[in-house]
Amino acid sequence: MGLAKGSRVHLHMSLMLAGAALLGACAGDDVVSPAVTTPALPPVMAEQLVGRWGLGAYHRDSDRERTIKEARAQCRNPYVIKAGNEGGIIMNLADEKEPRELLVKPTQEGRTFIGPADRPPGDLTDMEIVAVDDTSFTVQWVDPEVSSRYGTMVYVSCAPRPAPARTTAR
Questions:
Q1: What confidence tier does 162 reach under pLDDT thresholds 50, 70, 90?
Q2: Which label site among 56, 57, 77, 160 has the fewest CB atoms less than 10 Å from its CB?
Q3: What domain range is 80 assigned to?
């Protein structure tokens, strides 16, 4: 039992159109080359973190501004971040008594982490830099359990701020 003449013509035309579409896709002169990706630059470089910092932490976003003021007051007893020998910074990881060299690790997605060099960015031992400006940076621990204990940590620069420009009346 065969197809009706109209059905055969319709099937034949459909197959021809599908074949033409496939040939058209192959006939283009455009050569697709693999995308070259470069890592995103971190919003903060390791050398920008070296210095003396007032440190505070909060668990509720509503406490952020108060914590920044309290961190600034901690400059009497600052947390010191030193330059490491391998291009990193000397800091403490969660629950570690002794500081060690950590790297600033950017990702393709534009996120930046601080953590051990032998672990990928975003590892549970890392801190993520979630905010940065000229006088402070803020980190959150990747590990939810550690984050629940330490909170969101704010580092406020203890470097003297430039005095406002004086204007003189003439």
A1: low
A2: 160
A3: 46-157
